[in-house]
Amino acid sequence: MKIGELANATATNVETVRYYEKISLLAPPARSASNYRSYSNEHLARLSFIRRARDLGFALEAVRELLTLSDDTGQSCEAVDQIASAHLAEVERKIDDLSALRSELTRVIGSCRHGTIADCKIIESLASTPQLKGAAQ
Amino acid sequence: MKIGELANATATNVETVRYYEKISLLAPPARSASNYRSYSNEHLARLSFIRRARDLGFALEAVRELLTLSDDTGQSCEAVDQIASAHLAEVERKIDDLSALRSELTRVIGSCRHGTIADCKIIESLASTPQLKGAAQ
DNA sequence: TCTACACCCTGTAGCAACTACAGGGTCAAG
DNA sequence: CTTGACCCTGTAGTTGCTACAGGGTGTAGA
Asked: Separation of CA B48 and C1' C16 in angstroms?
């Protein structure tokens, strides 16, 4: 399988596939006489795994660990569970952060009276010196 | 005001202040005899504005626009409203994406039976070849 | 046979928004 | 007079790609 086919089969950019090889996430494949990369089904499975993990938001280093773990079929899956749970916690933290952001943005935008910049509440709330910042730390 | 004091007053890293100057987000301040940066209250207000906008998740380019707009006090604040609303929409999109991720992660993790890697449902669901991927495009 | 075109190769630079050095200079206190 | 906290410049690193530049290869049609 040539790189374009592999990329197509996994909805990945060709450049990304080469990038994964470069950072040793995907093993270097055999080469054709004309130096084209030639991938096996093993590579396809591996890249599919990577893509799916990436779609779930795992960082590349987490994906690397998950790949290593997945090869060690006899071991307990505790480590896998821990990586996934840590990631879930991180996702939840981000959701909370963004939700707080949304509230604040909604509030600020809602206060806009659509007049001139001079009395724009949005600008005003950005310009206000944060008095509590130091205390909040 | 020296850079450390300014940084402290705005809960910013010293390096970040210099970075903002480098990308022309913050005007270069006067210099002391020993070449130390010497900031005015104008700079303090400007940097506070930047920090507050950054805390609200605005990209640096958006902050740049907001700063320019904030100087044009006579103009309508429509443009400000639009930048803020676009950002809010983006935040909401991210929340939706992360919520979908959370559901999926929760589902996958919940299926874990805490056995060996060989029958780990998490690894399994990552390894499964995405059949619908092509069709979904 | 020529030539267009799609595909492949390597290597490097760019994106966002900082952060972290390395390798220096300055200044006030003890 | 030395210690330590601060300041300076400039460059490289972070994450996860993406986008060239400048080439080579393979195949199909005129």
From this structure: 20
